[in-house]
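Please fill in the sequence for the structure shown.

STRUCTURE ENCODING:
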């Protein structure tokens, strides 16, 4: 079924045992975040906190934090929606009267679902009031956060140049009763609209929608091509048009069935400190200046539910959202890049830090051409590391990927480094916001090279350095070592050791990374190094202007001075939640 609004979806979740009510009073500062984080790690239900200390509105969290809840929201598997759109495109390509007539029923359904339905008023405008953001149960997620943050707003803007809308999720740091930060990261549609308005010296009108229906929320997460409107795509996901009503103080239409709408504007040239904030890379993002949102009016339901989410060290709710987005988008990606069989970005590494593409290489170096294309493709352009493997390889299985690297990757011929290129706003490893480096590893089979025969590598890593406290070998390809202190000299000794010549990657991580936990290991490696700064090979030289690399790739992924702190919950909060756990879920 198509869900009209958030509360209807929550009721359906409760009927299916996918939502638990918490009637005990809870604190929005840290306590809710700790409860939600534990629930997500245990693959638990959505939570509805009925009594948030100091506030009148209930709070829903972990709404889409499971595969089953994603499928309930969409009525089917995410990938099926993408495949259906691909089938439609293929059926009408090349376009002809016969093809269009054959697909007329599907075309009519798409037209009806993507065209928003406008109504005179909606439930979200049952109450119209002056802004008082302190009345909302906005949570503080992590101890060193710079304050309370609205973490699940659907921010609606329109381009001043062509009027097209953008709907995206950008955190909002509460600055006062009627002002927030607006965290427009690099490569975000709302940020592009603001840049257009600011170039003309104009304020950008903005509506922050809190508590849209699940299709609207998923559409806001989708990395659609610039200019493609999420409001229209929400109709495709839902199977019915998005209902919109005219805003009270803005020249725009807003979702009629939301819980709250914050109407206001972002002036040109105004910036204020935003953050720190515990982010989905598992570290704090540092304080920085961002635009300021001035709220003019709040509209809401008479009895609204406030939505929230927690991000932090994986796994969190965004794991399921990100996985669903990939399953939906991948069939569409193959329309424009037919050589790609499959693509997967790893939630364990914060999605943008590691992606694996299965590629059918039809000519020499086509896989690296594909990597360069992906490095310039919308949100994928923020990817830091791409590993290319051949067809038939399960890109979601990191051990299978390592086996391909072991057999088919040679650093001298198959490694590509791109220094000083755009990076995700949240990436801290280059010590320079929005700027860093990327790398691609071509581990596809090569027509002119037989695969290397598997060979077992036995190593006593501690003998190379007293600073090595633990190690783990994965698929005789990746040697991960726990290092205390500075890792460069240790990595040099390991990478130059004759008995490790067949190992393709040696990664040094810090003591806080559990080598025996795959999630921890991928997080510990791929969120903590910048390729240009932190990679070394036993042999590195220039032939003309071309770099030559030989031997194992050594990655210094240790925690370095100047990195923002990793996320850790306040021990007192941990103790409180442990003590009260049965109280939260008492029947």
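FILLED IN BY: designer on duty
SEQUENCE:
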């Amino acid at each position: 079924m198509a869900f009209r609004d958030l509360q209807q979806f929550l009721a359906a979740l409760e009927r299916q045992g996918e939502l638990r009510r918490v009637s005990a009073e809870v604190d929005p500062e840290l306590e809710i975040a700790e409860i939600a984080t534990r629930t997500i790690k245990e693959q638990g239900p959505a939570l509805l906190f009925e009594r948030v200390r100091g506030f009148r509105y209930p709070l829903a969290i972990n709404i889409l934090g499971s595969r089953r809840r994603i499928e309930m929201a969409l009525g089917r598997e995410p990938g099926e929606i993408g495949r259906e759109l691909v089938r439609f495109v293929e059926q009408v390509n090349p376009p002809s009267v016969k093809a269009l007539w054959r697909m007329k029923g599907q075309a009519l359904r798409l037209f009806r679902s993507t065209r928003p339905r406008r109504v005179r008023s909606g439930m979200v405008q049952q109450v119209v009031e002056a802004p008082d953001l302190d009345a909302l149960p906005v949570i503080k997620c992590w101890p060193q956060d710079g304050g309370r943050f609205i973490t699940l707003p659907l921010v609606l803007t329109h381009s001043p140049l062509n009027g097209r809308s953008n709907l995206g999720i950008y955190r909002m740091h509460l600055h006062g009763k009627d002002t927030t930060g607006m965290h427009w990261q690099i490569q975000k549609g709302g940020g592009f609209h603001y840049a257009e308005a600011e170039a003309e010296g104009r304020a950008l009108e903005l509506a922050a929608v809190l508590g849209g229906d699940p299709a609207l929320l998923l559409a806001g997460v989708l990395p659609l091509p610039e200019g493609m409107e999420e409001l229209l795509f929400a109709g495709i996901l839902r199977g019915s048009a998005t209902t919109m009503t005219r805003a009270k103080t803005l020249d725009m239409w807003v979702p009629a069935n939301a819980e709250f709408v914050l109407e206001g504007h972002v002036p040109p040239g105004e910036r204020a400190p935003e953050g720190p904030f515990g982010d989905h890379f598992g570290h704090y993002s540092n304080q920085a200046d961002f635009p300021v949102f001035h709220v003019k009016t709040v509209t809401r339901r008479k009895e609204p539910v406030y939505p929230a989410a927690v991000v932090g060290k994986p796994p969190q709710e965004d794991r399921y959202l990100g996985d669903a987005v990939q399953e939906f988008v991948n069939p569409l990606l193959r329309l424009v890049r037919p050589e790609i069989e499959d693509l997967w970005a790893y939630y364990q590494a914060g999605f943008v830090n590691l992606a694996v593409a299965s590629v059918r290489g039809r000519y020499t170096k086509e896989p690296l051409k594909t990597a360069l294309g992906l490095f310039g493709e919308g949100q994928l352009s923020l990817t830091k590391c791409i590993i290319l493997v051949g067809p038939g390889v399960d890109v979601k299985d990191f051990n299978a990927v390592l086996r391909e690297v072991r057999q088919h990757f040679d650093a001298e011929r198959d490694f590509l480094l791109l220094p000083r290129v755009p990076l995700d706003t949240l990436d801290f490893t280059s010590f320079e916001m929005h700027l860093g480096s990327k790398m691609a590893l071509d581990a596809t089979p090569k027509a002119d090279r037989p695969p290397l025969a598997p060979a077992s590598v036995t190593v006593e890593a501690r003998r190379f350095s007293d600073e090595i406290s633990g190690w783990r070998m994965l698929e005789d390809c990746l040697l991960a070592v726990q290092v205390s202190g500075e890792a460069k000299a240790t990595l040099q000794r390991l990478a130059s050791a004759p008995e490790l010549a067949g190992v393709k990657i040696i990664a040094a991580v810090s003591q806080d990374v559990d080598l025996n936990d795959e999630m921890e290991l991928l997080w510990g490696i791929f969120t903590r190094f910048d390729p240009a700064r932190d990679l070394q090979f036993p042999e590195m030289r220039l032939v003309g202007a071309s770099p030559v690399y030989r031997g194992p790739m050594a990655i210094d992924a240790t925690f370095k001075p100047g990195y923002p702190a990793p996320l850790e919950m306040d021990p007192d909060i941990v103790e409180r939640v442990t003590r009260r756990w049965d109280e939260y879920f008492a029947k």
